[in-house]
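Run: sequence + adenosine-5'-triphosphate -> complex structure.
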Amino acid sequence: MTADSSTFLTAEGLRLETADGPVLDGVDLSLTRGESLAVVGSSGSGKTTLALALLGHLRDGIRHTGGRVRVRGADILPHAPAGVRGSLIGYVGQDPGAALNPYARIRTTLLTAAGRLPRGERDTTVRRLLERVGLPGDTAFARRYPHQLSGGQQQRVVLAAALARDPAVLILDEPTTALDPPAKAGVLRELGALRERGIGMVWISHDLIAVGAFADRVIVLDGGRIAEEGPARRVLTAPRSAAGRRLVAAGTRSTARHTRTPPASGRAGAPTAVTAPDTGAPLHGANPPDTAAGSDSGKTDGPVLRASGLVARHGSTTVLHGVDLAVEDGECLAVLGVSGVGKSTLARCLTGLHPAAAGTVALRGTPLAPDVRGRDRRERAAVGLVAQNPAEALHPRQDVRTALVRPLKRLCGITDRAELDRRVRDLLESVHLPPGFAGRLPGELSGGQRQRVALARALAARPSVLICDEATSALDTVAQEGVLALLAELRARTGLAVLLITHDARVARDASDRLLVLADGRVAATGPTPVLLPPGDSPEEQVTRLLTAPAGAVRPTPYDTDRGASLV
Amino acid sequence: ACGGSSDTPGGTDGAASDATSDTPVEGGTLRAVFAGAGASESLDPFAGTSPVDFVRNDVIYDSLFILRDGAPEPALATDAEPAADGMSFTLRLREGVLWHDGSAFTADDVAHSFRYMSSPDRPLPSELQMYFDMGNVTVEDEHTLTVPTVQPIGDPATMLASFPAKMVRSGATDFSTENAIGTGPYRVAAFEAGRETRLTRFEEYWGGASPTDELVFSSVSDPQARVNAVRTGQADYAGDIPFSTAKAGIEGSDLEIRTAGDTNRTGFAFVLNANRAPFDDPKVRRAARLAVDRARLVETVLLGYGEPGNDLFCKGARYFSEARPLKRDLEEARRLVKEAGAEGAKVVARSAEYEAGYNDSTKLFVQQLREIGLDAEEQIVSLAEFFDPAALEEADSVTFSSSPLPLPVIYGRMAAYPSFALPDDEFGAAFGEAMAARTDAERRTAWAKAQDVMADRGNTVVWGVADILSLARTNVAGIEVRDQAKYPYLGKAGLA
Amino acid sequence: MSPTAPTAPTGGIGTGGGSGTSRTGPRAAYAWWGLCATGLLLILLGPELAPHGPTATPGPPYRPPAAGAPLGTDHLGRDVLSMVLHGGRPLLLTGLLAVGIGSVFGASAGLLTALAGARSRLPRMLLMRPLDALAAVPPVLLVLLILTALPGRVGLITAIALAGTPLSARVAYAAAEQVVGRAHVEAAIARGESRCRLLGREVLPLVAGALLADAGIRFTGAVYLVAAAGFLGVGGSSDADWGRLIVEALPGASLQPLALLAPVLAVALVAVTVNLAADSAGHRSRKVLA
Amino acid sequence: MTLLAGPVGRRLALRVATGGALLAVLSLLVFVGVDLLPGDPVTARLGPNATPERVAELRAARGLDEPVLTRYAQWLGGLLRGDPGTSFSGKPVSEMLADRVGHSALLAGLCVLLLVPVSLAAGLYAARRPGKPADRTVSTGALLLVSVPEFVIASGLVLLFAVGLGLLPAVSLIPAGDHPIRHPDMLVMPVLSLLLVASAYSIRVIRACAVSVLAGPRVEFLRLTGVRERTILRTAVVPAVLPVAVQVWLVTGVGLVGGAVLVERVFAYPGVGDLLVTAVLGGDLPVVQAIVMILGAAMLLALVLADLAVVLLTPRLRTGGAV
Ligand SMILES: Nc1ncnc2c1ncn2[C@@H]1O[C@H](COP(=O)(O)OP(=O)(O)OP(=O)(O)O)[C@@H](O)[C@H]1O
Ligand SMILES: Nc1ncnc2c1ncn2[C@@H]1O[C@H](COP(=O)(O)OP(=O)(O)OP(=O)(O)O)[C@@H](O)[C@H]1O
Ligand SMILES: [Mg+2]
Ligand SMILES: [Mg+2]
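>> structure
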């Protein structure tokens, strides 16, 4: 395999179209052996479509109308010849939750990916692969099914599967979005090692910092065209294209904005909104009268949502052992924790989708039924959830409009068509999607677009508390900034309380007022964000430190006293 | 015995007669398939209801008398002599008859058999008890008995021959494979209800040992499957095959379709309920007989394998009156209906597929009745409910058929059943006379009288008599017809 | 790598059908639907078009095709063409109604139970267990019992519907079980959608393929249950029902094959059409399945 | 073992218990229902040859004039002692059923044994090419087979293989005292006819399920990672299809035990289906009741197994995870 090492994978004038127009337009790209190429671009710019085309695959509804893709000189569009995928080009998809085979144990998935192996080598192979991506290599873990894994664990399994056959090139579509910083560092280390071994990579990421550390070359995609291409260092420091400048600006601006004062109490004025221009907006006054639910937010004192002693089980294993938390109006509480610690479970307990085994959840002091079916309309509307996996969260047969209209009808009681249309338009606009998207099916959206639709749906009922389970993980820096700004604006304007589950240390630091660190199913630490994550240091490192600190080590921090009453 | 293969209108392609001139040779196995009754088949001679039961039990057990050409012939009994008042008769038994286990056949066996077959515990208690007091038989000596009767019976031998009255050994109540012991030409070697019976020749048979070493009967309910079994060489003889098969013809030089002859045909009929309107009026009954299109029915239902009937049952039986069939005359029929004021009268024709052709003939009959102004409709029911007495009494016409039974039997049955009975004094008197008559001439006159009444104002519309067809390898020989052609006697059959 | 490794069709993996259908073009589709519509019309108007009545016996039995009777006559001398024309409407209506009712009922029961999931045993006890008991009664007996209590078409339809319901419910349940855990169903539950909406909009589209396949096939089952009812003499069906024509024509098949072939073909044509129509109706729902 | 101790075990125990309860309910339904069927066993058996008085006499002798519930209690008592009573033909019902149930089960079992691979193969084959000629061919073929009544198919097979080619016996004339399994040549055509008819349903349902799985992101992902098509079918498609397919197989299989009447007729195969219909037609209530109870119990067992299969085959349910 030493033949032509100069260009391994090329795209020439690649043009792919949907019924609405081109998705990729004249894309040229080449990858030499062992090279690491990053593709960045705003959400919906065509990154995933390009990645799939490089594997010789087109999603339904996308047509190949020009150009070619070649692997080692052989065309792979429209039909990828046997033996290209898997062994020559490995793939890690954007949406691991939807990709893993629910009927296969992890072990089987990995062995399937690894191809034929002698019986004796199988166990060691599985163990080796799992450990390479930072997962426990023991048999018990390997015998789990995908649904028994957390989002981050799933993503790492997918990565392990892609590594199984030591492909010459790896195509990675956002491989670290669902990973906590320690895990992410681990995966990046592993990828770095692969690169050392001469494995080429096409890497799609929103994480410009990781890109900078990792890629040789960067391509900036914008609306399906290549806006610019160049050495990573140059593109990320001095982008020439407008698109590149926007991305880089958004990616670096956040650090500069870390200058707000921690609020003394949940209602003592709007937190320094990230980009909200009019910070003077009254906290609770802006709710339109038609929002039956949530309009009374702030009428009572105390936290809007409080959980005490939550215990949650999956089968016989207990994931949460008595978690207490409280969020106040207008406040943003970031929940941090290593992958698999139970964050999503906590979110589902709060929303009543996973009835807690013990403990209570109270909305403005009124206890809520553990099961969402036992809650009334107002209570349902008051707690919104953006689930971790946007692909699964949207009905594949329902267009975006329907997804948004349902909560409006169901929870807000709006029936007027014109009003519904207006609200749908507003919601789409608020998550930076064009109104034309109302007619699309989830399958016709990019990952980030789906995530924004899911967010819009959660916001539709104007909840008092919004629980975002990794709601910005699939977004580029620009879109992420937009979403966070939107949340900040809502917090300021309507007193929306936000529970932000995130792995992104910067997001946690920039957007939240308070942090809650989960470890071993318990609250390991909690306190105001500026105290736990002081400005200056790299937030990733701080979070890594927080998460990896031995249990109890962080607990008796003085910051707890800051928020005395509302805490444990 | 009964030849005549020429005049079968449908069987123009040369249907042979059952009784071929060939005589079977010694040895060999004869395999025959008949319709069975599945798991309810039995070696108990008084329990079986299906052709294979009858045919099988006919060669295992013997009767006191058998019917041949409609007349009784001595078998295990040599003679049945009625007493002067007709209220009892003396039965003399054949000597030197042995059971399959070697013991001798005696009067005790007969007394036991009579008691056993008429016991109310039997699933099918013998009909003979309508005539004989079967529980009170006295054994005179080893080979003589006296049997009391419940009404004057002039010809007990005919009655004993007409109803299945097989003789079983004294004390026998269990008829499992080992205990099924008779006096017949074959003994049981293996038996599986609904599947197969293997019989081996009984060398000491009183009538002379049979030619064939082994008889194998298989139960096959589906007629086409019976045909297929013979066609593909799995069997040598198939009883009762459908007309359509015969009509389509069967290729194969060693196969032939046989008929049982024109004295062994089944009479197909509609029995009109003379106890309720509109058929309580003799005019309407006659109208119905004028309306029925016999030729059409014979052509359609029998596919031509038979001939039009003259409305009397049991063509081929002794004393049968050969009146000419009524000509179809719709005008006259309509006139009669009008005259009786029965226009538009409701007529329910009840039928179930008791035998192939019942429902089809009923459908055609209903249409023909409509043509003469009766509001007829068919009532097709399941077999289980067909003979429900209450429902029968509600029906105006019941589809029915009969093989050429002796006349006392058929008219006795009809008399016993209210909805089948003809309430006519003249008929009743003639029937009583015939039953009690002790000489042949008396019986002949009495039956002629009774049948004249039937022909004039009777309630049976026997529209046709149908051939009984079978499929056989050409070398199958010695098949006899005794009481019913559907259940031939294979005791003397074999391969030529 | 196996030589049969995936060669993704232009239309994309797995759903070649989408492009396959569209490639045949709208004209072929129109022709197809036109043909279906004509067939349907022919069946519905059949009794009006038939040259002879359903009980008329214009000819001798088993007559081969001739001028007046293009398909010949059957065992009773009835015109085969007329009989086939007479038999379609009652059969189609009975079959479609019975299968429709059975499927709707069965599918609702199955979906409801799947949706209730492990949380509630009530639907299981109230819906699935009685259906299990129903499944345990052989269909022939069920038909007999119901027709005894409720003679006529209504009874027949009820009997066929009931005979099909249990398996329908099970297929629906088993298929839905795979789907109800999805996050969008949870989201719908969380916003308190009505059961109807949950079933009809959230779950049904994802299992429609299996349900339609189930219903489509059971249509032919219905045809022969109708025939069986006629065969057992319990009535409820009309003389000309295709199923009965077939049963009655079999003995004389060698004399007049058309009397058997015509209704068999009619049943087959309707069955194939009904099922393929169900397929293409279900197609859209599968196209974007996840 | 851990499985049985866990949620699956509890579920199974519960299902078996409810199955028993259902069977009890069924027995009452069957007894009373069958009793209400039109027709009278005595007249049906005696035919037109018996006078009404004799019929009445016999009814009394058979205990048919007692109230139905009394008879039910007696029957149930007998059933629990393993004695399902006496047929109206005078034979013990147990003796009549003894072999036949087994023979039918053999036929159905063989059929299901073939049905599983055949329907899986054909269903998956069609599903991989939805809307393509191959799919149309399989679907249309299956539909044609299911539209043609089984007795027509069976008769066709006989004409072809027995009468025409002379390869196989036309009728299953199994010698007395032999088990059908010792005559495989006589089983070929009955099994084949049943298979041809029964497979259509399974093929169609499997196809429908497989099509939706194949169109999903999981399969797309597996294909993108270069997993071989055969492996995809085995590890991702088949497991997803099985829960539904198992239902269909089991129910079809049990349905064949009592429902293969016409095929049993055409081949004169000594099964229970023919007996059931004969008994129904002849109004032999004890036989009908016994057969229906056996078939009912078998069906309930199959349903329990099918339920269990769904749980075992769906990891999310098997592991007792959250719903
Ligand atoms: N259905 C289930 N059955 C059994 N175990 C489960 C199930 N779902 C999740 N788990 C386990 O529970 C733990 C918590 O899962 P959860 O999804 O809440 O983690 P998380 O904190 O959201 O992780 P991530 O950041 O990776 O999304 C994990 O160890 C996971 O493996
Ligand atoms: N199957 C499809 N049919 C129609 N339009 C599609 C389809 N798939 C993607 N698109 C559109 O094509 C564009 C590019 O999508 P793609 O998934 O490549 O974006 P992306 O760059 O990966 O975005 P993200 O970062 O959000 O994942 C988007 O606007 C999307 O809406
Ligand atoms: Mg993407
Ligand atoms: Mg999570």
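>> summary
Chain D touches chain C through 80 residues (CB under 8 Å). Residues A 47-48, 94, 173, 446-447 surround magnesium ion (ligand 3) (CB under 6 Å).
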